[in-house]
Amino acid sequence: MNRKKKIKSILEKKQKKKNGKLAHNNKPKYISKAERAKLEALQAQENDDGAIQTEAITPSVESQSPEES
Question: DSSP secondary structure string, 6-53?
Fold first, then answer.
């Protein structure tokens, strides 16, 4: 009985390992604190550049309004 039980438990463990490797993980990839800081800095820089460009465009559009003519 002990031999059968041991063989069965070994086979069950192997099956669990196979199933575990086949299962897809939905957990997001780990991003270190330094990487997160870099990403935030890049996004902030992009947002600042976009804000400067829109500010430069907005006054020129307003100065061309037909109401002032």
Answer: HHHHHHHHHHHHHHHHHSPP-SPPP--HHHHHHHHHHHHHHHHHHHHH
Look up residue 59 and give its DSSP letter: H
What is the pTM (predicted TM-score) of this model? 0.38
5-24 pLDDT, tens digit per residue, is 999 999 999 999 998 888 77
Tokens in use for 67? Answer: 């109401």
Q: How far apart are CA 43 and CA 47, in angstroms?
A: 6
